[in-house]
Design goal:
Number of strands: 0
Number of helices: 2
Shape: rod-shaped
Strand content: under 5%
Radius of gyration: 39 Å
């Protein structure tokens, strides 16, 4: 009788050990799966955050450029602004002006 109870206890311990091992393996597998998924999402989030920062910088630069252009437009009257822009940006001259070209050598 005593041996039978000892065998039963050993059997229960063996089943319990297998059961605990199963749940530990399942938990470890779940943890690895969870870490992989979370790691990919964190990486994706960081990519989106850096793209958002670049876009914010571009927006800031465009606002600054717009402000500078508006300031330049309002600095002079319209005719002077158009004349100066044509000279500086397009290289145009008035019809009765003489242009001297300096040799850079």
């Amino acid at each position: 009788m005593e041996q039978k109870r000892t065998k039963e206890k050993r059997g229960k311990l063996a089943r319990l050990s297998v059961n605990v091992t199963f749940w530990l393996m399942l938990s470890a597998l779940f943890a690895v799966f969870f870490l992989v998924i979370v790691g990919r999402e964190i990486s994706r989030f960081n990519d989106y955050a850096s793209q958002a920062q670049e876009l914010r910088e571009r927006i800031y630069e465009e606002h600054r450029r717009e402000h500078n252009l508006n300031a330049e437009l309002h600095r002079d009257n319209l005719y002077e602004y158009i004349e100066r822009s044509a000279r500086e940006r397009l290289g145009l001259v008035m019809p009765d002006e003489i242009v001297f070209i300096r040799d850079r050598n």
